[in-house]
Write a structure and sequence with these properties.
- By secondary structure, the chain is α+β, with helices and mostly antiparallel strands.
- The protein has 2 domains: about 5-95, Phosphorylase Kinase, domain 1 (2-Layer Sandwich); about 105-300, Aminoglycoside 3'-phosphotransferase, Chain: A, domain 2 (Alpha-Beta Complex), CATH 3.90.1200.10.
- Helices cover about 40% and strands about 15% of the residues.
- The protein has a 4-stranded antiparallel sheet, sandwiched between helices.
- A hairpin with a 2-residue loop joins strand 1 (about 30-35) and strand 2 (about 35-45).
- The longest helix has 20 residues, at about 150-170.
- It starts with a helix and ends with a helix.
């Protein structure tokens, strides 16, 4: 059975839609017309197949972002997560018209609203209630809900986890491991300007906010898509936007009026950007090694 036919079948059987067009599409992402509007069907994530749990993670991130945005941002509503076959999951979400352009200030105001949103009753920790991914790379999220400081979360679940995966994916790269160990030992220095470790509180983060995941409706309402959500220090969302986007999503009055930069921001921003360089090194290989090493050396002052 073609992919589109199987998705149509599951939409109808689940009661999500009462009518879905019958199309012959066997692979890739696609759009279906339904009685509740057009929907976008995304198969897998990060350019490859994915288990159902990963697409359920994405759907939960979309739901939480939409609730936190307070109308200042649009986030596609997830309709259904299903499987075409084991390890070949898909997510169906509303299709938005992304032909518009948003001002930086409006985008920043929407992102600030997300970062300032009250934590939900079901999650008061760093991390996320579901394990996930960032692109095609697994992302552990403290789904068991252990209580910890942001420093410990970043050490164990972000920087430390990327270094662990690199020991498997690039076992001969002893330089990155040495620089990484030195950086882990010095992590407290980067967070000292923020006060006591327990004073750093979690915000809902998009998690993968590069420029390609930012768009707008025709009326100029900003839209964010394809999240890798977790709850963390708000500045951590700046990392990949600095890597791919120059940081413009957060360098505007809409954002900085609610979250002004504080002492030590430049170094922490490099630290958060480093996470995504290492993530890309793990996914794509050596072409991202140089950027990772350069950032580590800058952070260590060497």
């Amino acid at each position: 059975m073609a992919s589109a036919q199987e998705v149509r079948k599951q939409l109808l059987e689940s009661g999500v839609c009462g009518d879905v067009e019958d199309r012959q599409i066997s692979s890739g992402n696609f759009v279906l017309r339904t009685d509740r509007g057009d929907c976008f069907v995304k198969c897998g994530t990060g350019g490859s197949g994915a288990p159902k749990a990963i697409l359920e993670y994405e759907a939960e991130g979309l739901r939480r972002l939409g609730a936190a945005a307070g109308g200042l941002l649009r986030v596609p509503e997830p309709w259904l997560v299903g499987e075409l076959a084991p390890g070949q999951a898909f997510i169906v979400q509303e299709k938005l018209d992304l032909s518009g352009h948003a001002s930086r200030d409006d985008l920043g105001a929407g992102l600030a609203a997300v970062h300032a949103a009250e934590l939900p009753a079901d999650w008061q920790h760093f991390g996320f209630p579901l394990e996930g991914c960032c692109g095609a790379c697994p992302q552990k999220n403290n789904s068991e809900g252990k209580s910890m400081t942001w420093l410990n979360f970043w050490r164990d679940y972000r920087l430390g986890e990327q270094l662990r995966m690199l020991r498997q994916n690039s076992p001969s790269d002893s330089e990155v491991q040495k620089l990484g160990a030195d950086l882990v030992a010095r992590l407290p220095e980067f967070f000292e300007p923020l006060g006591r470790p327990e004073d750093i509180k979690p915000s809902l983060l998009h998690g993968d906010l590069w420029s390609g995941n930012i768009s707008a409706l025709p009326d100029g309402t900003p839209v964010i898509i394809d999240p890798a959500c977790y709850y963390g220090h708000h500045e951590a969302d700046h990392g990949i936007n600095l890597m791919f986007g120059g940081g413009s999503a957060f360098r505007n009055s809409g954002y900085e009026s609610r979250f002004p930069r504080v002492t030590g921001y430049k170094q922490r921003a490099l630290l958060y950007e480093l996470h995504h360089h290492l993530n890309h090194y793990n996914i794509f290989g050596g072409s991202y090694r140089g950027g990772s090493v350069e950032l580590m050396r800058r952070l260590l002052g060497s």
